[in-house]
Write a structure and sequence with these properties.
Layout lengths: L1 H42 L4 H11 L3 E8 L2 E7 L6 E7 L5 E7 L8 H5 L4 H11 L3 E8 L9 E7 L5 E7 L5 E7 L6
Antiparallel strand pairs: 1-2, 1-5, 2-3, 3-4, 5-6, 6-7, 7-8
Amino acid sequence: MKRNVFVSAAASVALLVAGPVATSAAASADTAGTAPAAAAAARADVTAEQAIAAALKDYPGVVESLDRDGNVWHVDVITKDGKAHAELEVDAATSKVTRENVDTDQNPSEHKDLLAAKVTAEQAAKAAVAAHPGTAWTVEWDSDDDNGKAASWHVEVRGSDGKTWDGSVDATTGKVTAQSDSDSDQNN
């Protein structure tokens, strides 16, 4: 009986002493296993161009808008015949596409300017980034001719300084015009 008490007491002491070490080692092993995966996810950030390509692969057509919201790209696509519209989400880490909404009852005449544009959303993003280095964050079709202006792309570029630059890209020529610089007040 004394032997069992001694063995139990020794085991208790061993667990008390080794418990924190074993727990720490297990936590280190767990962290070591997830750290490379987290680092790889941070490195594999999907760009605007990659989000557009993934969206168009899933739902062929013409991109009407693209917007980054945290870890998701929201992409609106109009079919090339103008009869359908899809709202897609593209995961910014994996480029996995999820269809949020598809409307197959569109009026093609509402999208005729977009469908006839010589400059695509991807080209507009590239032109804006070439004019103002950074990362394209938003690309939106603007056919509002209330001001007598020609159709264009509105593009927001985030610079490495944390500021957002707003610009317009002509839908025919690809010419970039600056609209403004603003402080960083965006949601990532």
